[in-house]
Every structure is written in C-alpha cells, then in structure tokens.
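Input for the complex:
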Amino acid sequence: MLKWYQETENQHDVFVASRIRLVRNLTHCPFPVKLSGEERKKLAEKLEEGLKDIGSVCRKDFRRISLSAAGGTEREALRERRAIGAAGAAEEGMESLLLSEDETVSITLAGDDHVRLQCMSGQAELSRLWEEADRLDDYINERFPYAFHEKYGYLTAYPTNVGTGLRAAVTLHLPMLSAGKRFGKLVAEIGRFGVAVRGVYGDGNETYGSLYEISNQKTLGVTEEEVITLVKQMADRLAASERKMKSVTLKSHRTDMEDEIFKSYGVLRYARKLNLKEAMTYLSQVRAGEMEGLLQFKEPVNICRLMTEIQPANIRMLVPEEEENDLNQARAAYIRKLLPELV
Amino acid sequence: MLCEKCKMREANIRYTEVVGGVKTEYNLCSHCAREMDFGHYSAVFDTDYPIGKLLAGLFGLDADGGENDEFDVNQVTCPTCHTAYSDFVKDSRFGCPDCYRVFDLLMSENIKKVQGSDTHTGKRPLYNREGGQEGAGEDEETRLLKSIEILDSRLKEAVQEEEYEAAARYRDEIRELKERLGEHA
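Predicted:
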C-alpha cells in the first residue's frame, strides 16, 4: 500500500500536505514526564489495549511500533516522515506508536503527553482531517476519560498546547517566495496574526527544498474551526503570492528559469554522489518545473516523496549496513532509480 | 510531604505534642509553624536569644523572623505530583492535570500573555463521566464539581491572603462536597 506522501494523484503546485494534531491526557494520572519507565510502559500498554480496534473508526489497518525498543535511526526516520514529533524521536523513554498502514494516522502514546493524535494527508484538506481527528478523539475519549478543566479546556503538559490541544498545519512548497529578499519580512508579518512559518527540512537556520509549514500558535480561547480558518487563510495568501511571483518570473525570465530547472534535472539524473542540501535544492527546482509543465515525465512521480525518502535516517534505513559509509552515494542512486525519464 | 496546615509548601518541621498521654504529630512548613501556638516553645522562633536564631536557621526560618517575610510562591507545590511552582517556571511544563488547579492563580496571567486568552471555547469531551450515566445524576455531579472548583480557588486566595481560618472553613466544605461526589460516582 502506498504511503500518503507516495501518492502521485492530484498533486498541487503549492499545497504539499495538511496536518491536524491533537494532544490529550487522561484524568487521574500524572503526565508522562513524572512517570517512571515502568509506569510509562504500563500506561502505554493500557492505552494500546483500549485502542486495539481503533482501525474500525477510520477503516485503516494499524501497526504498533514500540519506540523504546526501536533504534535511534528508525525513530529518526519516523520523525523525518513526520509520523512522530521531535520529542518522540529524541527521548529515550517508553513510548509506543500506533501507525496506520498509509501513515496518515499516527497516535503516539506516553510521549510528552498521554495521547498525541495526528492525521495527515497530501492534499489541502484541513477540514476533512479535523473531522477524522474529531471522530478518533471521541473514540479514545469513550474508553479513557480526559483531563478537562472548565476554564483551561483540555489539559496538556506544556501550557502552549492547553485549551483545544490543536495544531493545524499546512505544508507549502514556496521556491519563488523563499528565494526573494522579502521572505523574512513576510514571515514576521504573518507571525503577527498568530501563525508560525517554519522550514520542514533543513539544518539549523537553513531550510532545504523550500518546504514550509504554516501552523497556528495559539490553542486557548479559539475554537477548532477558527484555528483551521486562520491557518487556511494564511496559507492561501502565501500560495497566492507564490503563484503571482512564479507567473511574473515565467514571463520575464522564462529561459533563465528553464535553464535552472533542466540543469537540476540533469544533475539528479546523472550524479553519483549527492549531499542532502544539493539533492533538496535540485528536487525543489524539478518539482517547480514539473508543476509548471516545463518538465514532462514518462511516468507520474511525487517529488515530495523523494524529498522525504532521501532524508538521512530514511536513506540509512534503505541501504544495507555494509554500504552505510557513503550515504551520499546511496542518495544519488536512490534518486536515479525513482526519477523518471522525460517525455 | 506537604505542610498539613496550608497544604501548599513542603513541610520541614515536625512538631510532636504529648498532652495527658495523647500524642499528636504535626508536619508543618516554616511559614505555618510561626503561626502555630507552641506554648512556651514559641519563644524559640521569636526570641533574640542566639540559640533561638541557630534553631530557626536549622528549621529554615528567617533568622530575624517577624511579619515582614514574604509569601514565596516558588514553594507552592502540587500535592499530586510534587511539582513546585519553581519547577514549572524552569521547564514551562506541568507535572499532572491537577497542577492547573494548584497554580491557577499564579500562572493565569502568564497563560493569558502566551495564548492571548485564558478561557477555552472549543470542543468539550463527549464522554467524560466515569460510569457514563446520563440525566439528573450527571447534572448533580457537574454542579458539585463546579462548587468544588469555586471553593478551591477561594481557598487558595485565602491562603495567599494568610486568612487561615477562612481557608480551613473552605477546606472542610470542599472535603464534604468531595464525599458527596464520591457517593454519586
């Protein structure tokens, strides 16, 4: 079965993914940070047992992954695919994950909070994801009463999640906008509306591949619908600016743009070694070219899939251990295998 | 262990009293210990006599004692998970759902600053009544929970204002309501 980021149907030029995340905690139980390893394990087992039929709610098959037993690379690979948060990947604590086969639904148990429920998809469809998360949330709540406060709403380990416990996020591909000088200013301006913009992949301050995630910062005093509307509006505004810039550039500098895109394709097609930054930069160019119809592939491909699967931990999972010493070589080989020929 | 009088700070003084063969034990924080009547031993906490000062130092009292000492919010501790307010400030992370009740007065302003609001308006849990009974029983339970919450915040205000008599009254009322709640569940 294809994972959500491998789908090639209905790809959009700017909208790459949508994500809804809910944080919930049970009543009468300290947050995982205050539990011993043994207690965390018991809590995770109790939750797993209660949620073993969760697949029936969204008609999906789930598998259980014990994150404490999984190696660091596997956890990191899950984080790169955005099935778990940074906390789940880094910490050496007991924590378990229920992951649907297509990796759209992931439920992390006994991480920072008791339950972290996330629904993802490769389409711009926050409202549908919220409906799905809402249903799953009710299913969990039917089995486990939640810690809820009349004034503060759903109680969470961090005060930045309290209230709705909701993070609504949209991932956008912004190659034109992010290359512009005014991008930093634009991000700051959007921040004033209570929306954060951050790079999805990268290294410290630098973002690779021009993928940006737009998400709400506030979780208290706003309804779920208001949060989703806000994030949608901001994402739409950014997408509109990106498109405008692209059409202007295409008109004024078409040959320059084509040149860059075809050069990028050439490098990806024939390179024998690619580091993460190079690969992400060229893939971003190729994606922009494909979406504008400048590049036409013989077979359908999802460039964002490649961007996800060439991240360090995911590449390491793909290659046998003896070849692990050169990830750049493995990365180039993997891209050559998946990138189709031009028409 | 928490001080059994204010139930907010860690107890650091154990006072054992034997009257007519009946032994009573108190576990108190230094703040409440000063308020208590220890008969002629009270002098230990007030006197200028050097040994008094020495003992007071051991107990964690201010050597000069008196009225001017300030209520230290950093010592407020959640009775369920033993997270002190200072821990919360350090990690910006709560230890358990009860921390929200305990630190409510101390942090509600900060939450407002971070979140722009301090009142939840979104979704509410559908199935949060353990036992799942609907109808009159549920209303009664909700009512009791609400009154407990109101009394709780009054209790904390009273403790902050150092009105311990009022605080004791609220505490007893809360205990009574909780018993009634227990019968309902």
